[in-house]
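Q: Got a minute? One more chain.
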Amino acid sequence: MQATASEQTGSPLLVIDDSSTIRRSAEIFLGQAGYRVVLADDGFAALSVILEQRPALVFCDVQMPRLDGFQTCALIRRHPEFRSLPIVLLTSRDGVLDRARGVLAGATAYLTKPFTKDSLLRTVREQLAAASSLSVSSPLSSPPSSASPATSLLMASPLSSPRSPLTPSMAPASPPTSPLP
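A: Always. Here it is, folded:
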Protein backbone atom coordinates (compact mmCIF):
# COMPACT_ATOMS: atom_id res chain seq x y z
CA MET A 1 0.00 0.00 0.00
CA GLN A 2 1.27 3.48 -0.86
CA ALA A 3 2.25 5.69 2.10
CA THR A 4 0.17 8.83 2.48
CA ALA A 5 1.31 12.29 3.50
CA SER A 6 -0.49 11.88 6.81
CA GLU A 7 1.31 8.60 7.52
CA GLN A 8 4.69 10.05 6.50
CA THR A 9 4.40 13.07 8.81
CA GLY A 10 2.47 11.34 11.56
CA SER A 11 0.00 14.22 11.49
CA PRO A 12 -3.67 13.30 11.54
CA LEU A 13 -6.53 14.78 9.59
CA LEU A 14 -9.10 16.58 11.75
CA VAL A 15 -12.83 16.41 11.02
CA ILE A 16 -14.98 18.97 12.85
CA ASP A 17 -18.72 18.44 12.49
CA ASP A 18 -21.66 18.40 14.89
CA SER A 19 -23.22 15.55 12.90
CA SER A 20 -22.03 12.15 14.11
CA THR A 21 -23.01 10.69 10.72
CA ILE A 22 -20.72 13.07 8.82
CA ARG A 23 -17.86 12.57 11.30
CA ARG A 24 -18.20 8.79 11.09
CA SER A 25 -18.46 8.75 7.27
CA ALA A 26 -15.35 10.91 6.91
CA GLU A 27 -13.51 8.80 9.48
CA ILE A 28 -14.35 5.58 7.59
CA PHE A 29 -13.48 6.97 4.13
CA LEU A 30 -10.20 8.52 5.31
CA GLY A 31 -9.27 5.56 7.49
CA GLN A 32 -9.78 3.13 4.60
CA ALA A 33 -7.36 5.26 2.57
CA GLY A 34 -4.73 4.96 5.30
CA TYR A 35 -5.09 8.33 6.99
CA ARG A 36 -5.07 8.80 10.74
CA VAL A 37 -8.19 10.76 11.72
CA VAL A 38 -9.14 12.74 14.82
CA LEU A 39 -12.64 14.07 15.42
CA ALA A 40 -14.23 17.05 17.13
CA ASP A 41 -17.94 17.73 17.45
CA ASP A 42 -17.69 21.54 17.59
CA GLY A 43 -15.33 24.44 17.03
CA PHE A 44 -14.41 24.88 20.67
CA ALA A 45 -13.34 21.25 21.06
CA ALA A 46 -11.41 21.54 17.80
CA LEU A 47 -9.23 24.40 19.06
CA SER A 48 -7.66 22.18 21.72
CA VAL A 49 -7.35 19.23 19.34
CA ILE A 50 -5.52 21.38 16.79
CA LEU A 51 -2.86 22.46 19.28
CA GLU A 52 -2.47 19.00 20.79
CA GLN A 53 -2.54 16.92 17.58
CA ARG A 54 -1.11 19.37 14.98
CA PRO A 55 -3.25 18.05 12.10
CA ALA A 56 -2.01 18.12 8.51
CA LEU A 57 -5.49 19.15 7.29
CA VAL A 58 -8.77 20.30 8.83
CA PHE A 59 -12.28 19.62 7.54
CA CYS A 60 -14.69 22.01 9.27
CA ASP A 61 -18.48 22.06 9.09
CA VAL A 62 -19.93 25.54 8.56
CA GLN A 63 -23.22 25.23 10.45
CA MET A 64 -22.45 24.28 14.05
CA PRO A 65 -23.83 25.53 17.34
CA ARG A 66 -21.78 27.80 19.63
CA LEU A 67 -18.90 28.45 17.21
CA ASP A 68 -19.66 28.09 13.51
CA GLY A 69 -17.18 26.98 10.86
CA PHE A 70 -16.39 30.51 9.67
CA GLN A 71 -15.56 31.59 13.22
CA THR A 72 -13.56 28.42 13.86
CA CYS A 73 -11.59 28.92 10.66
CA ALA A 74 -10.87 32.57 11.48
CA LEU A 75 -9.67 31.66 14.99
CA ILE A 76 -7.36 28.97 13.62
CA ARG A 77 -5.90 31.47 11.14
CA ARG A 78 -5.21 33.98 13.93
CA HIS A 79 -2.61 31.64 15.42
CA PRO A 80 0.81 32.15 13.78
CA GLU A 81 1.55 28.42 13.63
CA PHE A 82 -1.55 27.64 11.60
CA ARG A 83 -1.51 30.33 8.90
CA SER A 84 -0.79 27.75 6.19
CA LEU A 85 -2.78 24.84 7.63
CA PRO A 86 -5.21 23.65 4.94
CA ILE A 87 -8.79 24.19 6.10
CA VAL A 88 -11.63 22.76 4.03
CA LEU A 89 -15.13 23.98 4.86
CA LEU A 90 -17.86 21.33 4.73
CA THR A 91 -21.36 22.57 4.04
CA SER A 92 -24.60 21.91 2.24
CA ARG A 93 -24.70 25.62 1.32
CA ASP A 94 -22.90 26.18 -1.96
CA GLY A 95 -23.70 29.80 -2.74
CA VAL A 96 -21.21 32.40 -3.93
CA LEU A 97 -21.65 34.44 -0.74
CA ASP A 98 -20.97 31.38 1.43
CA ARG A 99 -17.80 30.64 -0.53
CA ALA A 100 -16.69 34.27 -0.29
CA ARG A 101 -17.28 34.28 3.44
CA GLY A 102 -15.19 31.10 3.69
CA VAL A 103 -12.31 32.70 1.79
CA LEU A 104 -12.47 35.75 4.05
CA ALA A 105 -12.33 33.48 7.10
CA GLY A 106 -9.21 31.80 5.68
CA ALA A 107 -10.50 28.56 4.20
CA THR A 108 -8.36 26.98 1.50
CA ALA A 109 -11.14 24.89 -0.05
CA TYR A 110 -14.85 24.17 0.09
CA LEU A 111 -16.48 20.73 -0.07
CA THR A 112 -20.23 20.43 -0.47
CA LYS A 113 -22.18 17.88 1.57
CA PRO A 114 -23.14 15.22 1.02
CA PHE A 115 -19.67 14.34 -0.23
CA THR A 116 -18.54 11.12 -1.85
CA LYS A 117 -15.52 9.07 -0.86
CA ASP A 118 -13.84 10.07 -4.12
CA SER A 119 -14.47 13.81 -3.66
CA LEU A 120 -13.25 13.67 -0.05
CA LEU A 121 -10.04 11.82 -0.96
CA ARG A 122 -9.42 14.05 -3.99
CA THR A 123 -9.71 17.11 -1.74
CA VAL A 124 -7.26 15.60 0.76
CA ARG A 125 -4.70 14.83 -1.96
CA GLU A 126 -5.03 18.30 -3.50
CA GLN A 127 -4.80 20.15 -0.20
CA LEU A 128 -1.86 18.13 1.16
CA ALA A 129 0.01 18.53 -2.14
CA ALA A 130 -0.59 22.29 -2.12
CA ALA A 131 0.46 22.56 1.53
CA SER A 132 3.65 20.57 0.98
CA SER A 133 4.64 22.80 -1.94
CA LEU A 134 4.18 25.88 0.27
CA SER A 135 5.79 24.52 3.43
CA VAL A 136 8.82 26.25 4.85
CA SER A 137 11.53 24.19 6.49
CA SER A 138 11.71 26.18 9.71
CA PRO A 139 10.68 24.92 13.13
CA LEU A 140 7.42 26.21 14.50
CA SER A 141 7.33 27.81 17.91
CA SER A 142 5.13 26.37 20.63
CA PRO A 143 2.44 28.35 22.41
CA PRO A 144 3.22 29.46 25.96
CA SER A 145 2.77 26.52 28.31
CA SER A 146 0.82 28.61 30.81
CA ALA A 147 -2.01 29.20 28.34
CA SER A 148 -4.59 26.54 27.58
CA PRO A 149 -4.65 25.37 23.94
CA ALA A 150 -7.98 27.05 23.27
CA THR A 151 -6.83 30.29 24.95
CA SER A 152 -3.66 30.26 22.86
CA LEU A 153 -5.70 30.15 19.64
CA LEU A 154 -8.19 32.73 20.87
CA MET A 155 -5.52 35.19 22.00
CA ALA A 156 -3.32 35.18 18.88
CA SER A 157 -3.17 38.58 17.22
CA PRO A 158 -5.51 39.09 14.25
CA LEU A 159 -3.05 41.62 12.81
CA SER A 160 -0.41 38.95 12.39
CA SER A 161 -2.47 36.88 9.95
CA PRO A 162 -1.78 37.49 6.26
CA ARG A 163 -5.39 36.49 5.50
CA SER A 164 -6.92 38.88 8.00
CA PRO A 165 -8.81 41.87 6.59
CA LEU A 166 -7.09 43.88 9.34
CA THR A 167 -3.56 43.26 8.09
CA PRO A 168 -1.64 46.55 8.38
CA SER A 169 -0.43 46.40 4.75
CA MET A 170 -4.05 46.74 3.66
CA ALA A 171 -4.59 49.99 5.59
CA PRO A 172 -4.51 53.25 3.65
CA ALA A 173 -1.02 54.74 3.37
CA SER A 174 -2.19 58.17 4.53
CA PRO A 175 -5.45 59.77 5.58
CA PRO A 176 -7.59 61.17 2.77
CA THR A 177 -6.90 64.79 1.95
CA SER A 178 -9.58 67.43 1.92
CA PRO A 179 -10.57 68.81 -1.49
CA LEU A 180 -10.83 72.32 0.03
CA PRO A 181 -7.84 74.72 -0.32
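A: The domain at 5-134+146-167 is CATH 3.40.50.2300 (Rossmann fold).
Q: Perfect, thanks.
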